[in-house]
Amino acid sequence: MEPEKSNECPLHDGGPSAQSLVGRRLTGVVGSWHLCGGEDPVGPLGVWLVDDQKAAVHITTGSDWCLIVEVSEPHVGHDMGDSGLIAVEAMGDSSPFAAHIGESVVAVREKHEPNTGRMALELSFPTGRVCCESWGGDLRLTAV
C-alpha cells in the first residue's frame, strides 16, 4: 500500500480546508490587478471572497503555480514606481462571482497535483459554479 500523498503545496501548505467555505454566504468580491503603462490589466492577481460574517478568503497563485487559499483581509493597493501599481478594489460585475452575490456556497471541489498541491478550486452555488485555477501561474476565474 502506498503512503497517502499530501494535497498541500510544498511552499505554502494547504491553507484552510476548502470545506470550510461551504455554508458561507457571498456578500462581495474584491480583486487586485497589476497596472503598468496604461495597458489593460489581464485578469486579477487575486480575489477576496467576503462573506456575511465579514470574513474574507483570499485566492491567488503562488510562485510554484499552486493555488493559494488563505484567510486574510484585502490588501491595500500600492505604487511600485516604474513597475506600475497594484490596484485593489471591489470587482462588481466584472467577476464570474457577481451572479452569486447573496448566495451560499453549497459545495466545493479541489484539484491537486502531486508536486505542486492545489491547482483548482470549484465553488458551487445554488445557481451555478465558479472555478478558480492556476493556469501557467496566473489566476483564472471561470463560470462553469
Strand content: over 45%
The chain-level mean pLDDT equals 87
Number of helices: 0
Order of strands across the biggest sheet? 4-3-2-1-6-5
Report Rg: 15 Å
The helix/strand series, from N terminus to C terminus, equals EEEEEEEEEE
The percent range for helix content is: under 10%
Assign an overall shape: globular
Taking the alpha carbons of the first and last residues, their distance comes to 36 Å
By secondary-structure content and strand pairing, the structural class works out as mainly beta
Low-confidence parts lasting 5 or more residues at pLDDT below 50? 1-6
> Largest sheet at a glance?
6 strands, antiparallel
DSSP summary, beta strand count: 10
In short:
By secondary structure, the protein is mainly beta. It has strands at residues 26-35, 46-51, 56-61, 67-71, 78-79, 85-90, 107-113, 117-125, 128-135, 138-143.
Question: Would you give an account of this structure?
Answer:
The chain is mainly β and about 140 residues long. The protein is built from no helices and ten strands. The protein has strands spanning about 25-35, 45-50, 55-60, 65-70, 80, 85-90, 105-115, 115-125, 130-135, 140-144. The strands form two sheets. A six-stranded antiparallel β-sheet has the order 4-3-2-1-6-5, with no helix packed on it. It has a four-stranded antiparallel β-sheet with strand order 7-8-9-10, with no helix packed on it. A hairpin with a 4-residue loop joins strand 2 (about 45-50) and strand 3 (about 55-60). The radius of gyration is 15 Å and the shape is globular. Residues about 1-5 have low confidence and may be disordered.
